[in-house]
Input
Amino acid sequence: MVYRDVELHNTAELKEGKHGGVLPQRVPDSVREHLNEGAQQRVLRPACSEIRFVSEGPAKVTISATEGSVKVVPFFGLFRHGLPFTVGTEPRTIEMAMPERLSNGLDALLKQRMPFSPRVCRLMLWGSQIEYHGVEGNGVRPPTTDELPSLRYLSYGTSITHGSAASWPNLSYVAQTARRLGADLLNFGVGGSCHCEPEFADYFASRDDWDIATLALSVNMMGFTPEEFRERVTYVVNTVAGSDTTRPVACITLYRFYGDRDVNPTLHDIPAKGALFREILRETVAACPHPNVHLLEGREMLTDVGGLTTDLIHPADDGMIQMGENIARRLLPLAAARLK
Output
């Protein structure tokens, strides 16, 4: 979404903030109000969402968190700029000035046709809902199409997709996947609340701004019966894939977690259900009438149990990176076919 002089990436709707700014949210209220209570709150928060702009010199961006804090990773194009940091509830002004070394090499870098032009200032965000207060600088404008990736990657899933336990949002597995694909990421991870509502599926299907998708379905649904799980994932898979059969849709079975016997052999009931949910998704993909649906085995995307944090469900940075590498390897030929 373009708002005044910037692009608020992965933003579908804005609300008025309490301090004169605007509150970006990842889905419009027309969708959000039909989701479960947890997802209704999660989509108000950024997940690899970005503030983007190009300027003729140094520029200053002011943001705050509505509560808690927001993690911020600054970039110029693909180049991380300085160290990541956090912003609290007090408005903070961030100065983005292209370093001299990068500026001096800009002409040579532009010829390399990187997915993101090094001219594009990017603030990647994760955490509490943000309030965007504005930007100041000379010649500030939103990026043009040719300054951004031509491939757009949509992801849906649980807190793992949302980016929980990654130190910073650029280390989440979907951000790592997008980086390796040279893609622009639309992250619809909803921590603890990926329940495969039909409204989410309809919303993804209605959007014409993505080229390839992953649907990680879904360890958050352990409280559902197998019949409910099958019904919901069948609708999501068939609807999203059927919206445009030239767009590859990769469905990912449950990632390695504490409910697997090789991770925690003391548990008995959860492993059976996790295995059943994986099998249901396999059967759903096999029965899907659309040719653009593909299956990825979550346990093959994260093979190293040591890549998990001590809660034995959320991958840490090393696990996220491994997942990004493995998923991107599987998606690259699908993405190449899409861009032909």
In short: The first helix runs from residue 29 to 32. The chain has two domains: 2-147, 151-339. The longest strand covers residues 130-137. The chain has a mean pLDDT of 96.
